[in-house]
Amino acid sequence: MKAIVHEGQPGFSGLKFAEIPSPAVKPGTVKVRLKTAGLNHRDLFTLVRHKADAGPLVIGSDGAGIVEEIGEGVSGFQKGDEVVIIPSLGWRKKSAAPPEGFEILGLPDDGTFAEEIVVPAENLAPKPHHLSWEQAGVVMLGALTAYRALVTRAHVAAGQTVLIPGVGGGVATLLIQMAKALGAKVIVTSRSSDKREKALALGADRAIDSNGDWQEALPGEKVDVVIESVGAATFEKSLSLLKPGGIIVVFGASAGDVVPLNLRNFFYGQYTLIGSTMGSIEEAHECLRFMEEHRIAPVIDSVFPLREAEAALRKLERGEQFGKIALKIAD
Ligand SMILES: NC(=O)c1ccc[n+]([C@@H]2O[C@H](COP(=O)([O-])OP(=O)(O)OC[C@H]3O[C@@H](n4cnc5c(N)ncnc54)[C@H](OP(=O)(O)O)[C@@H]3O)[C@@H](O)[C@H]2O)c1
Predict the structure, then answer these.
(1) Domains, the chain, ranges and CATH?
(2) What distance in angstroms lies between residue 110's CA and the mean position of ligand 1's atoms?
(3) I want to staple 60 with a disulfide (CB 3.0 to 4.6 A). Which of 72, 111, 286, 329 is the partner?
């Protein structure tokens, strides 16, 4: 089968479009013939984190396709079923933190940028009817991350105001849609005026420049919840917009992991800082039901053929996208 494989040199130089053996089905697993896959910022980190001596790795965490073969002991699926892959390996139930052994598909296990994949049966969900193949292929990692951050961790409720810095990201666009579906007022930031316009069209109530003065852009405005994934470039500004007693959830740090924190302001503000990582299989099913109920579909920025995955990843690296970048693998 054809696949995008990383091996040897860290970064893009170790990436190739290659012919590799089709994976074998084992007990408890299912083989899926992938139609589409989706890019995540994690794929860029994987190119650096995947060790030079670790052997070839098929990258990619998101995908959707058709069940091809079913392993011994698997029930509930049939050949021909249309499915979405849930990339949380080993995290079954909603819990305070992932259990020991939790991994995300695409490192160390082979991922979705391939014509076929074998995954545990528990990591499959029926493809939501309201999503196209491109939408289904890009949705799960970002939607699950957004859902756990907003619903499980921050308990966002109708009438609250939610701030989402760095709105161009794949998770951030899903956050807008989910926060609006929960009845919240949504304020976003972006470095790009074009992305700010697109965010307003998607339902955001206000959109401001990430690099500008936020207090000036939002006079007198404070928010109940911030969902942070930009990191060092925006964290302090995010904290400065929180209402006393507000919550800041962090699930990413695209622009740097280390931030200064004024502890006195923090404790006087009675703030809560919460970390969040993707989510469990239980939350993935909840999330898909929530998206079906509210007819939420991910924004597709662009679609590249599988063999052009490198060009797609370079676009993600440049931060040019608004929403998700998809790979088309088969018709
Ligand atoms: N913990 C988890 O389970 C989990 C899951 C998914 C993602 N993540 C993390 O969350 C982050 C977002 O993921 P994603 O896939 O949505 O990424 P993405 O599509 O690459 O988006 C990142 C966004 O961050 C903003 N940004 C980046 N650098 C910035 C800077 N210097 N100043 C201001 N804004 C900046 C940009 O927004 P604008 O272009 O609009 O300015 C960009 O579109 C990544 O760090 C990722 O690793 C974590």
Answers:
(1) 2-139+297-328 (3.90.180.10), 144-275 (3.90.180.10)
(2) 23
(3) 111
